[in-house]
Every structure is written in structure tokens, then in C-alpha cells.
Amino acid sequence: MARCFVQLLPFMKTDSGTIMGWQMVAAGLAGVWATENTRTAIFDALARKETYATTGTRMIVRFFGGWDYTEKDLNSRQPAFAGYAKGVPMGGDLTAAPGGKAPAFMVYALRDPIGANLDRIQVIKGWLDAAGKTHEKVYDVAWSGDRKPGRDGKLPAVGNTVDAANANWTNTIGAPELGAVWTDPDFNPRQRAFYYARVIEIPTPRWTTYDAFRFGIPLPEGAPTSTQERAYTSPIWYTP
Predict the structure, then answer these.
(1) CA 10 to chain centre
(2) Quick one: which of 23, 40, 50, 79 has the most CB atoms within 10 Å?
(3) Edge-to-edge, what's the strand order for the sheet holding 87-89?
(4) Run of H or E including 149
């Protein structure tokens, strides 16, 4: 399975006010899981939506949905084999939930080889209730370090090693890889839903911080010094 990246250009729209240049973000990338690095295979992968996007980092992300994934599948060091054999990849569809089962999702991420460590993996669930109203919920499913969710259910921040004055950071926090097998604890087999994975890196200098350091100029007033690059997968849809 070949992995390809395509550059995405930034776009921002506003109805009023002025957007300063420093408020814009850098161009992102689209990752495509194709059977081979050919035009035909890449377009086939785009058609089946086996794709993910990043804010510029070149991390690797796999996301599968099914009914029978286990920790053994994840820890086999070849999770994609079980991913395809027992379910569907990002962009796929799940239907007809087996009686008494909730969908299980296997997600795995590996950091950019020359980039930052990973902070956490989240699964975002969206659904439509009986009244036709949309809902969304974010679940932290894997994270670095020995952090534990607080009473409010929120995971503490990973920390920040950014040295803004020198536009640098260190990989002394975070993890080079993260993975999880997560089962939806709020699953309703009669309710349409979608799920996608979001992988977040530890903080690194923002592009404005790099420019200020390289050109010896002050940061624009109000500009943040760091950001957390991330990746988003195509959803997996569940239809009763």
C-alpha cells in the first residue's frame, strides 16, 4: 500500500473585518492510501475516500472500523492486515450492526520522521437524532505520557517545549507513535452516525515564529508563538 501526499492551499473567507497575513495558516497536505504509486491507483483511492489531511506534517495515520478488532490486531506491528480483513478503512461504510455489538475502531499514528512527537489521538463522532438535529462528540482514545482525564473528562495538556526566541522545540514530551482499539460506548444501532480520527502533535513553533527568528523581526501583536499540527482522516459511516 503506497502513501502519497498532495499539497492543499489555504483558504479563508470572512463577511466583515480584515484578516492579517499572520492570521493565515500554511498550506496543508492530503494523504492518499493507494495500492501503488500510479495515477490510476491514486484516483481509485480518492474515489473510495481512503484519504486523510494534515496541516502540513507528514505523519502516518491508519483508521479502520469493524466489529471484532482486538488489541492483538493493533500490536501485531501490521495492523493494516487485520484492518482490511476484519473491517473497512477510512472512507468506508459499516451497516447492519450485529446484535448486541457496537463498532470498534482501530487507529494508529506514527509521527513525521523529522517532525514533532504526538500528543493524542481523538475519535470524533457525529450523529443525527430522531428530530433531525445533528450532534458531535470528541473522545480522547490514546495519548502520550501518564496523564489521566480529570473529573470533567478532559485530558490535561501535554505541555509545551517551544523556545520562541530561537524558533525551536524538543521531543522530550509526547510519543513517536500512538494507537488504540476503541469501541463506541454510546452506540445506538438504530441511529446513523459517522466517525473520524484526529491526531494532534505536541506544540511546535508557528510559521510566524520561524519568520520572526529568521528575519530578526518582532512577532506581530497578538500572534501566537506555537501551534499543534494535526491530521484528520476521512470518516467511516454507519448506516442501520
Answers:
(1) 18
(2) 50
(3) 87-89, 60-66, 104-110, 177-183
(4) none
Strand ranges (E), the chain: 2-8, 28-34, 51-54, 60-66, 87-89, 93-95, 104-110, 118-128, 134-143, 177-183, 193-201, 204-205, 226-227, 230-233, 236-239
Length of the chain: 240
Strands 51-54 and 2-8: unpaired
**pLDDT tens-digit readout, 53-73:** 999 999 999 999 999 999 999
Is the pTM above the cut of 0.85? Answer: yes
Domain boundaries along the sequence of the chain = 63-239
How confident is the model over 182-220, as pLDDT tens digits?
999 999 999 999 999 999 999 999 999 999 999 999 998
Q: Which residue, 139, 101, 111, 79, is CA-closest to 238? A: 101
The span from the CA of 197 to the CA of 133, in Å, is: 22
Measuring CA to CA, which residue among 4, 118, 105, 93 is closest to residue 63? 105
CA distance 57 to 29: 8
The stretches of the chain forming alpha helices (DSSP H) are 39-47, 71-74, 79-86, 207-215
